[in-house]
Amino acid sequence: MKKNAVFALIAIGSFAVVAFGQTLINGAGATFPFPMYSKWFNEYKKAHPDVQINYQSRGSGAGIQQVTAGTVDFGAADVPMTDMQMQEFTKQRSAEILHFPTVLGAVVPTYDIKGVTATLNFTGDALAGIYLGKITKWNDPAIASANPGVMLPNSDIVVVHRAEASGTSFIWTDYLSKVSPEWKMKVGSGASVNWPVGLGGQGNEGVSGQIKQTGNTIGYVELIYAIQNKMPYGKVKNAAGEFVQADLNSVTAAAAGAAKNMPEDFRVSITNAPGKGAYPISSFTWLLIPAKIADPAKKKAITDFLAWMLKDGQSLTSALSYAPLPKDVVAKETKAIAKIK
After folding, report:
1. Which residues form the domain of 224?
2. What is the pLDDT of residues 262-276, one digit of tens each?
3. CA pair distance 336, 330, nearest whole angstrom
4. Which of the residues 62, 75, 135, 210 could staple to 160 if both were Cys, CB 3.0 to 4.6 A apart?
5. Residue 330 counted as domain residue
6. Would you say the pTM of this structure is higher than 0.70?
7. What is the CA angle 180-273-286, rounded to 5?
């Protein structure tokens, strides 16, 4: 064999080893943090070309189901797993499941009302009434009284909600359950509920599409989707009695109290948080990581990514309208990485 051919085979063989040696991590779940995760995984790949993290945005329900079934290496959800779901995971996988908060975000009421360009104010009672089907006209006093000077039409309200099990729906219904006893009794909170009224849209993208295509609509989406799609979104009355618009400061304010009393398993709700300036429909979102990872390469890739996410990744959040984790939470999570064996 000629010398050049030998070198060529060595080069090809070396390339194959590098490609074969790449660690592939698969995840699925929440749409709420999808823009943030896409950015993180892309940036992490640049710094760690030997690790490829693939993520499918399918909703929190799918994320919990798939990580429990073992069809993905990690799940993602905007709703903490219930005790029953965690027990089922342990039964299926012979290990515990760990929750790692990643960022803070907000769910906002967004709307498309013919002839209305103002930023609307919404009380919790009004939002609950709309989604219960009790408030059916845009000029209903429950809406009009919070928006003096705004000419609201005598038009039917078209309600839009998520069609699939969704952490975004959990955040929305968790908030409504806290501000409306009637909502809590009749519907309750959950990733999937029996909606009294409305059209369903698949994912934040589907809800956004329904709102933009159908007149006189109201729906709920993650803040970044409203911003990216240039959709108006309203202010919501918080526990302190203020009408607050979702932004980095108001979401951070909502998390301030929870950070000091964060439970060891990181499962906590911060909707309708007390305190001045707090946006009431705010939430952490979580990566769901098995406590036992048999493949050493995957374990190293996942734990290294978590450490990077808590340190370097947090600096990338504000550009995509997510709030970084409080320092107290970062410190607790950094220690919790050691639980992954």
Report:
1. 106-260
2. 899 999 999 999 989
3. 10
4. 210
5. yes
6. yes
7. 100
